[in-house]
Amino acid sequence: MCRWLAYYGDPVPIETFVLRRKHSLIDQSLNSQLGATTTNGDGFGIGWYDELGGLPGTYRSVHPAWNDRNLRELAAHIRSPLFFAHIRASTGTAVQETNAHPFRHGRWLFMHNGVVREFARLRRALLLAVDPELMPQIEGSTDSELMFHLALTFGLEEDAVAALERMAGFVEDVAEEHGVENPLQISVAVADGERIVAARYSSEGRSGSLFFSTDARALKKLYPDIDEIQGLSDEARGVVSEPLGDLVGAWNEVPESSVGIVQAGEDELRPFTPRREGVRTG
Amino acid sequence: MCRWLAYYGDPVPIETFVLRRKHSLIDQSLNSQLGATTTNGDGFGIGWYDELGGLPGTYRSVHPAWNDRNLRELAAHIRSPLFFAHIRASTGTAVQETNAHPFRHGRWLFMHNGVVREFARLRRALLLAVDPELMPQIEGSTDSELMFHLALTFGLEEDAVAALERMAGFVEDVAEEHGVENPLQISVAVADGERIVAARYSSEGRSGSLFFSTDARALKKLYPDIDEIQGLSDEARGVVSEPLGDLVGAWNEVPESSVGIVQAGEDELRPFTPRREGVRTG
Amino acid sequence: MCRWLAYYGDPVPIETFVLRRKHSLIDQSLNSQLGATTTNGDGFGIGWYDELGGLPGTYRSVHPAWNDRNLRELAAHIRSPLFFAHIRASTGTAVQETNAHPFRHGRWLFMHNGVVREFARLRRALLLAVDPELMPQIEGSTDSELMFHLALTFGLEEDAVAALERMAGFVEDVAEEHGVENPLQISVAVADGERIVAARYSSEGRSGSLFFSTDARALKKLYPDIDEIQGLSDEARGVVSEPLGDLVGAWNEVPESSVGIVQAGEDELRPFTPRREGVRTG
Amino acid sequence: MCRWLAYYGDPVPIETFVLRRKHSLIDQSLNSQLGATTTNGDGFGIGWYDELGGLPGTYRSVHPAWNDRNLRELAAHIRSPLFFAHIRASTGTAVQETNAHPFRHGRWLFMHNGVVREFARLRRALLLAVDPELMPQIEGSTDSELMFHLALTFGLEEDAVAALERMAGFVEDVAEEHGVENPLQISVAVADGERIVAARYSSEGRSGSLFFSTDARALKKLYPDIDEIQGLSDEARGVVSEPLGDLVGAWNEVPESSVGIVQAGEDELRPFTPRREGVRTG
After folding, report:
1. For residue C104, which of C154, C67, C140, C51 has the smallest C-alpha distance?
2. Chains in touch with C (≥3 Cβ pairs < 8 A)
3. Pairing of strands A44-49, A108-116
4. Of A119, C88, D60, D155, which residue is most buried, by most CB within 10 angstroms?
């Protein structure tokens, strides 16, 4: 399984939550090797929005994140008010930059932890449903990139939550046609520079986890020695596939089948309900 | 444009024709930079059959061939009676191992120099025609890998020439449907360990070049100082997308729209005629 | 031979002069393949100072620059008032990130085009002269990285020009001891965030070239369609190992054995005279 | 810490003990993540002697071994009667091919697991002691490569055991001069195509482990389903830094401060005693 983090708030260097300190995404990933989980050594990626606006940038690599010197440089020098970071554990798919998250389309970034079961069997039918105008952008071989392009096909840029629900419902429809049970288990995040939409869902009700930081005060307690974090305003929030650190109360677990929206003003938390429209794929 | 070489004959180290000497594939590629052609610096690959038989091996890399130390090692140590070597010049497609030639399916290797015009527009329809059982094997984003899987779909393993002709005809059919003129310009080679089938074709009659070595005597004249080549029997033959060296008479240019078969006993040279069956792709 | 570019002036995205357009460093490098020069495909690097100050960042890669997608992303998103860009053509030394320019020490960046003749023979004696405190930083195997650490040993951080002259003189002393004639041929640049110091020198008086842009008006004429360049103030200047574009009058060639300093206020141009102190290396 | 394996005996494909099965070097490395040890994800290498003799070949990569497709190909196709395999866990040194094991000089291969304590401080003095003729071959920045070149300087090609003992003694001498206690902790192997010499030593008597397979019968019990191993003669032996599999009696632990020689005829096991000659390094 992969791991990811999304940040929204005061502009900070990407390294702030991603590396070089205890309880960072990459530190956590290495420690998790001591537990029962996989090594996330099959590439990584970051995606960020500049303070000045404009399209997001990405840096994706096939190297393990923990020893990638370029990542350290960039994470120290790039400041951003909204960024994604993702570390990958491949389950057989090629380790190549085009399979690394986040994926991008125009202003949108997408990243994912989870799986489409029996993807090799379902891939063709799913690919067929992608808008032919979008298909040339698909360069890798992951289920994640394909889910992103399905969501784009289903209107992600107009209504992100509805498009993700249509995507999930469509995958379930196609899986049913092919006799694949419980096809989806996803923790997914998208952003457009203004907001982060993050959903947790699985067909069988046992999805990967998803957490929102409670508020900036909790983050400050978690990293008492880091000036940049101590200076954060109350707007600063993190969304993670697994909690960073073990501070009780720092993270709210998002319930099964939910989608959260982090944005200026009030955040939102709603049920996530795949829209199954019985799409026929011929 | 890419460049490639196929060898059939007495087992020799792969380096014999591929690198480390004047008139080798890679030397030639670097020299060609002084001419009007592209730098072939976007990855390379070799594929070879062992002397003992069995499935072929491949080594594919995203580095420029000229400074890849692992290639030098392997090419010096791997002996083979039938091998492919390919150096790539990307025209925009991602530089990743899964886009490097040769491609493999079971006993078969495939490599290619050329282009499917407006591939981005045609890709979806071509992909749809691939046998759903084969589709999960497609990991990259090149026209070449897709052509290989179309040829496999059309029976490459039973009748290689017919399958390549059906593949070419199918691409032309799909291109016509989409209003793409003169879609194909290819120099393609496949092998199964027993024989090499190499075809040259373009929709407009101006394909990339293709050459067969005239006989081992010509190769020996081209490389007078190389013991391994001087010891070759008359069975040894090379097929190349561009001639190595400038020795007059060493290479026979294959005519437009032709396919040659290099094998034990008599070689064959036949017309290559795309089989256009007016396939409808919905 | 390598190629490099240094920029000083109004903050611009690094891509402005480095890629994606005619007359950029990388475009030029590819075009130069049509000429008589080498392909610069053996890695590249950028180094930049942030607008906010602080230590410079670097991004160094072993891939050819022309197809490196991460470079495109970073060059589009990183804005800087002073940056270096370097593309490498190895002459046998390993293609690895630690051999890519620019090199960094504290606030200082260093890059280089040229050669120390018979470096393999001289390396040991040169390495011995490096300050033992600095030696652990040497991670690669190039003459360039070693020259940088010699210059640091000789006081680069206090007086950059004098330290470069001492470094050049010391290399000539060591070469003489070893019977190596005309050991140096260099076009070298260093920066500390406030100024660029660039020198051209060769032992035999035939060094690689070095050019300063005449003034921002010349740059504006060279790139009439690029808003970011049209908006530059008169402070903006470039230093390059070979001129970008072929606009007459846009570039001043620095004379043999000269060193230029680009900084706020008046630039300087002075003779560059190796300081030969007859150092004994035992 | 790294991990390594050396094989001597009937020619087998390198994959036999290196990957693709339970109790292989790479499988073991991934499983060890569940234990208390490090992830060996910072590159790997293989080195092998051909059945026909000649210089050994090497393949070294910066990718994690577990997902490197080229490694799988080569390990399946290269047969060898004597090979090394090494997987690396960097402790800060750059992840680059020139830092990957095994290292080679002429007919000799060298690989290592362990550490020279405070290497950054000792490196200069150690480097100075390397034969100036050999120094140009040092391309990376590891203690391991430097130890190899010291051993070569001290006569490895004439008397391998004595040279390794001199190397160890010299490192201890230099460390003492610099006030570094207990500098060495090594499990090291060298080979010349005829024999493997493997030593275990640490200055404080707590070195990394080293094991020899007891005999081919034990290997056969460990891999009951693998024809290639079942067909091995009694000559086949393995040397490993950690045992593969958990079969009691399959591996003999080499005692502290010992060196073993695997060769045709009788193997040898002797004390390993650093030769401290009080070398002065100025």
Report:
1. C140
2. A, B, D
3. unpaired
4. C88
